[in-house]
Structure of Germin-like protein:
Amino acid sequence: MFLPILFVLCFRLSSSDALDFCVADLKAPQGPIGYACKTSELVTVNDFVFSGLREGNTSNLMKAVVTSAFSAQFPGVNGLGVSVARLDLAVGGVVPMHTHPGGSEIIVVVRGTIMAGFVSSANKVYYKALRSGDVMVFPQGLLHFQINAGKTPASAYLSFGSPSPGLQVLDFALFANDLPSDIVKTTTFLDDVQVKKLKGLLGGTG
């Protein structure tokens, strides 16, 4: 009698969607560990498919665009520890120094030449020109960058070790805010003209 009961119990547990995934309920608030789970009755195959990694519009200040498939855009990755994105760089395009506090990143170049690198916590720099088929990893939380180093547009796919890796761009953190220019000048060793120029360029005040 014990074995049949155990078999039925194991079958029920193994067939439970709740043990397989936690599709993000985007209508619920996001907490420190991600979104709440959508009830299994509302989950569809479309929650596990993302069709938005098309070439992006690079007509902006940085001549670059990242199209993200994080949990907010791709509910199926919620809770799974992975996500993806696409990077497009026009000629002269750059993704400035930035960090992802929530996860490490891997870049896979599929077109053009991208100069990419990161700075370790010991301030050692690791960088290289990457071409189609090259892969590089950026450890979690470290400053890193990507630059189009060629004469044609460049593209890459990005993979992250988090469904919501977060983003902080150094230039925007310093100059796209209302921190008084005197404080920025003192902490960056830049002169007042440079600080105000960068604040004006990136939308900061103060």
